[in-house]
Amino acid sequence: MRKSILFTTALTLPLFGQAPEVKTAEQVYKNITELKGTPADQLVPTMQFISVSLGVECVTCHVGGKPEADDKRTKKTAREMIAMTLMINKNAFHGQTQVTCFSCHRGAERPVAMPPVLESDAAPARPTPPAAPATASTPPTADSILEKYVTALGGPDAMKKVTSRVGKGVITTSGKDTPIEVFTKAPNKRVTISHNANGDSFTAFDGTAGWMGNTGRPARDMSPAESMASGLDSEFYLGLRLKEIFTQLRSGRPDKIGDVAVISLNGMRQGQPPVRFFFDANSGLLLRTVRYAETPVGRMPTQIDYTDYREVDGVKTPFRWTLSRPNGRFTIQLSEVKANAPLDDSKFAKPAETK
Ligand code: HEC
Ligand code: HEC
Predict the structure, then answer these.
(1) Ramachandran angles phi, psi of 270, nearest 5°
(2) Cβ-Cβ contacts under 8 Å for 124 (sequence gap 6 or more)
């Protein structure tokens, strides 16, 4: 049985990037029995994981405004299910989270126990076995993948000549378009401002920590895990920095995204779920990243797909990207990007109240 070094050390070493004292769910919330010991900032991601795994809303188990109340039968069942799931993994999978709510529920409130009968007299379609990878050769090394990526962007010298970008465009979410501005500054500052009819909303990383806000309301700090993810998205010279950010970069086997052949890198770091990077095998450009939010009942994925690379001041940059999660998705399409516009650090700092 596979035994992951990452998993065992994660439990004994302090989590990188988190404050030394991490509050537990039961210290922050009122009525926690099964999720005791879970870092408090994993409670809401856990609830999101449960909701999408069962295809239900929060109100299936909670009375609005009083999540600590135990009025609903479904909440009681969910507690038993959490205990069962943790036990299956402990007893059958050496404590690794292999079975989750989604393994059984697959997006339905009640799992399906029996395979369906055939509904047609035609010969059943045989699933086509996955095609063998075109080349049986050894996958490229992490170094060669990164070098090809950096060269495709324009090379390290051209990259270092650009120290900021200002992009304007549109964010599309739930079929609605909203104007957006994206400001980025080396080495790792970023703020996106979407101009909604009722005010602006901000998502930002100030170089150290992430924050979010809406016009007229106090801005809020991101959780340590959100902040870490946002920090990665804010890396201005990502291709040059991956080897410093991750303690280990492993190349994966050749794969495809749609019809495009891709090669992948898995970024590992202490006490954190891996982050996966997929590069176009021909052009070398980064097409996709997948990262995970850790919860005690399973991992919530976030996928970002980059397209429409265009050259601005000698460096390629994506003009379009889509962020998708099991419970949400948006696409940003930029129409213009200006490089090296002067940007003051205060642009990225968390204000007391969002202006
Ligand atoms: C399938 C049932 C289920 C769904 C759906 C669900 N929850 Fe929960 N929730 C629970 C259970 C069970 C607990 C208690 C966990 C424990 O005792 O360790 C809980 C606890 C909580 C708590 C802690 C309350 C306190 O003070 O003790 C919050 C907050 C919460 N849920 C929010 C949400 C949100 C937000 C959603 C929707 C995204 C959601 N939940 C969806 C079952 C559910
Ligand atoms: C090993 C398979 C399995 C896993 C894992 C599992 N469930 Fe279930 N769950 C079931 C089955 C089977 C039922 C239906 C039982 C029945 O019909 O009486 C069920 C029923 C439920 C119900 C009651 C639904 C209703 O409308 O009555 C809830 C709520 C629930 N599960 C939540 C969860 C949560 C939350 C998790 C993850 C922490 C989870 N389950 C993991 C198999 C599983």
Answers:
(1) -50, 125
(2) 118
Residue 183: C-alpha distances to residues 154, 157, 355 (Å): 21, 22, 16
How far apart are the CA of 47 and the centre of ligand 1, in A? 6
Q: Quick one: which ligand is closest to 40's CA? A: 1
The Cα–Cα gap between 67 and 30 comes to 9
Kindly report the protein residue whose alpha carbon is nearest to atom 43 of ligand 2. Answer: 104
CA gyration radius, the chain: 22
Shortest-distance Cα residue to atom 3 of ligand 2: 104
Give the tokens for residue 21: 């004292």
Pocket of ligand 1 (CB under 6 A): 29-35, 44, 47-48, 50-51, 54, 56, 58, 60-62, 67-68, 74-75, 78-79
How many angstroms is it from 102 CA to the middle of ligand 2?
9
pLDDT band at 126 (very low <50, low <70, confident <90, very high): confident
Residue with tokens 């926690």: 32
d(CA 214, CA 200): 6
Q: Does residue 6 have a pLDDT over 60?
A: no
The C-alpha atoms of residue 91 and residue 85 are separated, in whole angstroms, by: 10
Alpha-carbon gap, residue 145 to 327, rounded angstroms: 32
Q: What is the pLDDT of residues 310-354, one digit of tens each?
A: 999 999 999 999 999 999 999 999 999 999 999 999 999 998 877
pLDDT greater than 80 at residue 235: yes
Residue 8, pLDDT above cutoff 60? no
Among 70, 101, 106, the mutation site with the greatest number of ligand 2 atoms within 8 A of its Cβ is 101
Nearest by Cα to 327 from 43, 40, 46: 46
pLDDT classification of 30: cutoffs 50, 70, 90? very high
The residue among 9 and 33 whose pLDDT is bigger is: 33
Residue type, 241: R
Distance CA 113, CA 279 (A): 39
